[in-house]
Amino acid sequence: MASKAALLSLAALPLARAETVLGLYIFSRHGDRTPKALKPTNLTSLGAEQVYASGSWYRSQYVASDANTPLYGLSSDLVNLEQMAVMAPPMDNVLQNSALAFLQGLYPPAGDFSTQELRNDTEVTAPLGGYQYIPVNTVSTAASGANLENSAWLQGASGCDNAVVSSNNYLSSTEYKTAYDDSEAFFQDLLPVINGTFAASAANFKNAYAIYDYVDGAVVHNQTIPSSDLLTNETLRELKVLANEHEWGLAYNSTDEIRAIAGATLAGQILSALNATVAGHGGKPLNIQFGAYGVFLSFFGLAKLPALSDDFTGVVNYASSMAFELVTNASVSDRFPGADDISVRFRFANGSAASVTPSVYPLFGQDETLLPYSTFVSEMSKFAVKDTPHWCKVCGVTAGDCATASSGSDGEGSGSGSDTVSNNKSNISLPIAGVIGALVTLAVVLGAETLIYFFSGLMLTKKSTLAAAQAAAAGNAKGKA
Question: Which positions make up the signal peptide (predicted)?
């Protein structure tokens, strides 16, 4: 009888509501590409497959009719362009083509859904089995349309003068000089492998990422490599460690956060998109953006993720992605939940989501992985840049669009929060309102400052490429050491 009473008591309790995903913002790196030292840089077949597989995982998780956690109100088979926004830098075939391949995994050819019966009883299926045409929006950049993934040093092209100064401060730091001296013999020992492209004077820590990128591409694609016996597992690990150290130093500094301008502006776009989803009651629930690893690194630093693991201070793998979920346990049957009933969860996959399931991590040094929306907004607003006048102010830019922006605003922006970001000149308030597209899409690939234009015996053997070669980035980058 007691057991029966207990069961009846449990039956009387209200059932816990299933969680609903109301919105999603995905930021993804491109897939495998040819080395930057071998221009023009192109997406490889392997790279296309990596991002396609990642898009397929996100489809199975959020989009398909039988998705694990379906995105609320999102069309599952036929894309509704009003429900999503996709962005990638212009004039960049690696990032643009990565976005297209990802989208075909997310919304594959519609097949029977695209077949129509005409009045004369003829059935017509759209080309390519109902291939779904999803536009990838482009945002103007300060790089004047340069092919970003074809550039070796992008902080100078970012247009943010103070960020350039900050990154160059790293190149004159004791930390940098120590790493340079300690690794000099290591890089010189690699010359038999790389000397067709890198001169002896360029085989050093200054070009740590460019050399790593070059060797990594050869190890993946080449049938033969000069002096390949030098590329032991230990050597390859050390090469990656040095590349990670170099790029982290250029991407983020806790006492000089203007260096992380790419992560700050990405934070601004994420806030704007998620705010629009909440305010618009889910009108545009899905936002996807493609960029390069420098944006990941600077955002990781600002969001205090390195405190969890040193893995957050290294260059992310090809097709890596991070996702921000808007979730609720409130009922959505009658109305869209209010902000007080919404939380945010952060996921990250260091590699294609199809191979590395995105894991959940706490942001901002918090203990909880599920943050109230108000807490998420408050923490992001401490470093997010979303307003053009403030971007101009923290970057120290007064020309071009900034001249127009400053003439119509006092540069203080709107919204709440008085958190500051420091540069080498002063403490400057970061904005938390409006939208800026100039920097987020730059994917600040903070790396090798020396542009390399000639080829060697260590040539990349391409399986095939998905895009025609584009012209090399115009001009030498600013701030080039």
Answer: 1-18
Asked if the model's pLDDT at residue 362 lies above 50, the reply is yes
168 contact partners, CB below 8 Å, separation of at least 6: 479, 481
Q: Which two tokens stand for residue 77?
A: 């088979």
If DSSP states are collapsed to H, E and C, what string results for 176-211? HHHHHHHHHHHHHHCHHHHCCCCCHHHCCHHHHHHH
403 and 428 part of one domain = yes
Q: Across the chain, what does the average pLDDT equal?
A: 81
> Are 242 and 263 in the same domain?
no
Q: Which amino acid is at 468?
A: A
The Cα–Cα gap between 354 and 331 comes to: 31
d(CA 180, CA 127): 55
Nearest to 166 by CA among 266, 267, 303, 301: 301
- The answer to whether position 467 is within a domain reads no
Q: How far apart are CA 86 and CA 31, in angstroms?
A: 16
Identify whether residues 170 and 73 lie together within a single domain: no
Instruction: Count the domains in the chain.
Output: 2
Asked if 139 and 160 touch (Cβ cutoff 8 Å), the reply is no
Residue written as token pair 């901002």:
364
Dihedral sign, Cα of residue 197, residue 201, residue 203, residue 209? negative
Is residue 331 domain-shared with residue 387, that is, in the same domain?
A: yes
Residue 364 φ/ψ region, left for φ over 0, alpha for ψ in the -120 to 50 degree band, beta for the rest: left
Query: How many whole angstroms separate alpha carbon 438 and alpha carbon 448?
Result: 22
Place of tokens 């069961």: 7
- Tokens at residue 83, please? 């429900």
pTM to 2 decimals?
0.81
Q: Is the peptide bond before 109 cis (omega within 30 degrees of 0)?
A: no
Quote the tokens at residue 310.
């040193």
**What tokens were used for 428?**
């400057």
The CATH number of the domain where 321 resides is what? 3.40.50.1240
pLDDT of residue 151: 44
In this prediction, what percent of the chain has a pLDDT beyond 70? Answer: 76
Helix (H) or strand (E) holding 408: none
pLDDT at position 152 is 41
Residue range(s) defining the domain that contains residue 176: 164-250
The C-alpha atoms of residue 51 and residue 53 are separated, in whole angstroms, by 5
In angstroms, rounded to a whole number, what is the distance separating the alpha carbons of residues 424 and 389?
20
Q: pLDDT above 90 covers what percent of the chain?
A: 63
DSSP letter at 236 equals: H
Cβ neighbours around 431 below 10 Å, total: 28
Residue partners of 477: CB distance under 8 A and separation at least 6:
151, 152, 153, 154, 155, 156, 157, 449
pLDDT at 87 over 50: yes
